[in-house]
From TrEMBL:
Organism superkingdom: Eukaryota
Alphabetized SUPFAM superfamilies for the sequence: RNA-binding domain, RBD
The protein's name: Uncharacterized protein
Keyword tags: Nucleus, RNA-binding
Record bears the keyword Nucleus: yes
Family annotation (SMART domains): RRM
Amino acid sequence: MTGRSRGFAFIVFQDAASIDRVSAAGEHTINGKKVDPKKAKARHGKIFVGGISPELSDDDINEYFGQYGTIMEVEMPFDKQKNQRKGFCFITFESEQVVADLLKRPKQVIKDKE
């Protein structure tokens, strides 16, 4: 690890209107560098889960979210510098309906961790 930025970021806005305002604002510059914000392309059946405790295992995530539907894939990025998970994951479900249902319940508690 070099400790240098890889040149990209993901931003989660509180409301969809913010995304439209960023797009309409024209050119953006951060620390003297022009940046090119783009809206993420929706991946059907895939959901972002943030705020995951690093102590939770793959099995914990699969067991908890598996109760909602068939899981096709779980991506849990790992921070090699800190030697722990990054605290978020992406879960792909077989059914898009599972994602729609989960989005109606934004707060989840797994092993007493919200």
